[in-house]
Amino acid sequence: MDAIAAELVQSIPRRVARAWALLCGENRLFEWCSEGFVPQISAHTYLLSLDFLGSDDKAGIAISLCPQDARDLACSMFKLPIDDLSVPDIEDACMEVCNVLADAMSDIVAPKDRLHTRLPQPLETNGYQQRCMDSALRCSLGSATGGQTSYLMVFNRLNPRFETRPAPL
């Protein structure tokens, strides 16, 4: 690994932590998981696909938020107490978190000017298991709090058959 690539890899956890702090005002430590580690996912898991411009290749960045993180982020983003949030509010917040954290992490896949970003979509347990079998889970970051862990995962290459919603123009 050359010095530029090593510096980029070292900067990703800090960039993700800064983005997290901007979203919810909480300072969190994000750390690379061991190579080959495949995280268990929660009900709050979303995948954002990245299309390589000029190619049929795809990559993807997934986020799996533990239930407490999903609720806390939604409360912070909507400035509402948990009792006033609906399930769609939490889902919307999780998708926005996926957008923001994927942006902080996408340079590990390729320069942003070589990628077209799609919209995040929910990733169910069966879909996640299929992604892990069909695609290359390249690396993952984890952040633990209160005995629960949230994960960010990079799939590079993502199976080309994986379909996502296009981002609006």
Structure report:
The chain is of the alpha+beta class and 169 residues long. It has one domain (3-158): Chemotaxis protein chec. It contains four helices and seven strands, in the order H-E-E-E-H-H-E-E-H-E-E. It has helices at 3-24, 67-78, 87-105, 125-134, and strands at 31-32, 44-52, 58-65, 115-117, 121-122, 137-145, 148-158. Strands 1, 2, 3, 4, 5, 6 and 7 form a seven-stranded antiparallel β-sheet that branches. Helix 1 packs antiparallel against helix 3 and helix 2 (67-78) packs across helix 3 (87-105). The mean pLDDT is 87.
Count of helical segments?
Answer: 4
Give average pLDDT, whole number.
Answer: 87
> What is the straight-line distance between the termini?
37 Å
User: Could you give a short account of the major beta sheet?
Assistant: 7 strands, antiparallel
Tally of structural domains? 1
* Overall strand count: 7
CATH top level?
Alpha Beta
Q: Roughly what fraction of the amino acids lie in strands?
A: 25-35%
> Helix and strand string, N-terminal first?
HEEEHHEEHEE
What overall form do the CA principal axes indicate?
globular
Briefly note the CATH topology name: Chemotaxis protein chec
Indicate the percent of residues in helices: 25-40%
CATH architecture: 3-Layer(aba) Sandwich
Low-confidence stretches: none
CATH superfamily: CheC-like
Radius of gyration: 15 Å
Structural class: alpha+beta
